[in-house]
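Q: What would this chain look like folded?
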Amino acid sequence: MKKIILTLVVACSMLSAFAQTAEEIVAKHITAIGGAENWKKVKSVVMEANIKAQGAEIKVTRTMVDKKAMRMDISVMGMDGYSIITNKEGWNFMPFAGQTKPEPMTADELKSSQDQLLVADEFLSYQDKGKKLEYIGKDDLEGTDCFKMKLTDKDGQETTFWLDATNYYILKSSAKIKADGKEVENSSTFSNYKKLDEGIVYPMSMGGDNGEIEITKVTINSTIDESIFVPKTK
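A: My prediction, written as C-alpha cells:
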C-alpha cells in the first residue's frame, strides 16, 4: 500500500511540474515580446509588407482591429485584390486568380480564420478562449533548440508552436485547416524580431506557403475607417 501511495504522489508531482513548465514557458514568452500590459494597449495594427513568391514581388497591407476585423490588401501584376475577415463574415476578391467580384468565405474558412482577428499571438488570450495548453517536449528546428507547445480549442482544432528555448520567441506555427472541403497543413515561420516604440516585439520576417514576407512598416493604434471591412460591390 505504501508503494502505491508513493507512486501516486510521485506521479502527481510529475504532472504538476509538467503543467507548471508549460505555464512558465508561456509567461517567459509573453515577457519576451513586450509583456501583457503593453499588448493590452494595442487596439489596431497596420502592417505593410512585401512578399516574394514565384519570382514576383507582391505588395501587401494588413489592417487589423483587435478581435473585430482584418483586411489584407494585395497588389500584384497591376491588379488589386483583398481578403476581409470579421467575427461574422468573410470575403475574398482576387482578380489575379480569376475572381470578378467579392466572394463570401465558406463557414469552414471563416471559422478557421478567426484567430487572424487577434493583433497579438494566441498565448496572450488562449485561456479566455477556453483553449488547452500543452508542453510536448523539446525539439530541434533547423539547428535551434525549441520548446514545442500545442494549443487545442474547444472543437479539437490543434495548433503547434516552436518557441526558441533561448529567447522564447515563436519561430514556427503549424495547424491543419479546412479549405475547399479538404484538410490541409498550414505552417508559418517567424524571424527578425524587432522592438517597436510601443514596447512590443514584432517579427519583421515571416514565411509560409505563399512565400517570404518582409515587413517594411508597422503602425500601432492609428484611426481605422471601419468601412474598409465591407466589400465593395459594383
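The chain has one domain: 2-56+105-217.
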